[in-house]
Amino acid sequence: MDFSLTPEQEARKREFEEFFEAEMRNAPER
Amino acid sequence: MTKGGFDKIFHSDETWAFHRYMAKKLAEKGWLSLPWPKEYGGQEASLVEQLIFNEVRAYHRAPGVDIWGIEMFAPTLLLAATEEQKRRLLPPMARAEVHYCQGWSEPNAGSDLAALKTTAIKSGDHYLVNGQKTWTSGAHRADHMFLLARTDPSLKRNAGLSVFNLRMDLPGIEVRPIRYMNGAHIYNEVFFTDVKIPECDRIGPEGEGWRLTRETMNFERSNVGLFSEALRYFQELVQYVKTTKRDGEFLSRIPAVRQRIAELYVDIQLGRTLAYRIAWLQEKGGLRFAASAASESKVFGTELIQRIANFGTEIMGKYGQVEDSRWSPLKGGLIDLYQQVMGYTISAGSNEIQRNLIAWVGLGLPRK
How far is CA B56 from CA A13, A15, B16, B112, B223, in A? Predict the structure, then answer.
């Protein structure tokens, strides 16, 4: 079992990270 | 700490509006339907890519994914629906135009789901539904329900059940709130009186509802997000013990605290590996291949996050319950987590049921 991510998967992960980090700044407190 | 929260979408009009906003954003990117075939609005991405998405989203506590429609019912449709049903029902989900609720639990059929009594009796070109569901999360917000009902009342237990796509605006459906002590409206009772479901909305063959439901359960339980959620809370706790003094000494210097922190960290890494193993098993052999592993992950993950919540409330004491104070850097989030995760080991198939499945399916022990 090899659970390491490929460079393409790493890039996708960064894309998801950047999106959620930016959008969640607008999230309501509760 | 409680900002966002993918499990808190129903807490207020504001959190629901933010969920809908995020759903539209995710739909525009095609991220609600990553592994689906393109003809139904999907991207044909790998399960690993879906896993990465779930992991990142849970870490950020981001709403936007209808867990009942996108994560539970859509995979069932992909497995069992007709071509016409897939083309009609999946694209609106991928575009975030509809929200689903789950029509499973009844007053006397929760963990023992096969005891359900709601009937859907064939009558001409439709089914007539009568009965009641309960603990239905978000039924008051949902456009559709995926319903499990008894189409042959002469059969007992898991025989004679069928799955339906039910529009919540059909005549004869009444939704009544079950409110939290703090007034929050998340759960509901749903009553059906002579509700007519067209035959074209029965999913899969009549009487095969139990088999389809078990498939749906497996999708729900292979969720890496649980460990990602645990990691986020854990990191916030680590920061707390690094920066908080008790009797003049940083908490991070107290041996008992350090031991507990290290134990939890090992468990989080272990849990994440369990989740990745499920994705690996699914890539290789599909969901049935991973059924027992999904139960292992559910049991371990839900009990782990309870341990984190217990540890957090212990070390924070009363400060953990305060929302607005400079002495409470986690803004009451820990007590919120503590209350919330108590239900994790009960919902989505209790951990006792999961342990039975591990014994029976995973280890080949007798069923009883």
Answer: 7, 10, 21, 33, 12
* Residue of B91, B92, B82, B286 lying closest to B202 (CA atoms): B82
Distance between CA atoms of B317 and B325, rounded to whole angstroms? 14
pLDDT computed for residue B6 by the predictor: 43
pLDDT tens by residue, B315-360: 888 777 777 777 777 777 777 788 778 888 887 778 998 899 889 8
Token pair of B219 as six digits: 């999708």
Q: First vs last Cα of chain A: how many Å apart? A: 40
Min CA distance, A11 vs chain B (Å)? Answer: 11
- For the segment B209-268, what is each residue's pLDDT rounded down to a tens digit? 988 877 665 554 557 888 999 999 999 999 999 999 988 999 999 999 999 999 999 999
H/E stretch holding B310 reads helix B291-316
User: Would you call B166 helix, strand, or coil by DSSP?
Assistant: strand
CA distances from B132 to B120, B164, B176, B213, B217 (A): 12, 15, 11, 18, 21
Active site residue B296: no
**Global ipTM:** 0.95
Comparing CB atoms, the residue among B11, B57, B277 nearest residue A1 is B277
Percent of chain B residues past pLDDT 90, beyond the cut: 56
Q: DSSP class of residue A5?
A: P
Alpha carbon distance B60, A16 (integer Å): 10
Amino acid at B298: K
Q: Which of B71, B220, B229, B296 does the annotation list as catalytic? A: B220
Cα-based angle B131, B135, B141 (whole degrees, multiple of 5) = 95
pLDDT per residue as tens digits for the range B104-131: 999 988 777 888 999 999 999 999 999 9
Q: Could B12 and A17 be called an inter-chain contact, meaning their C-beta atoms sit closer than 8 Å?
A: no
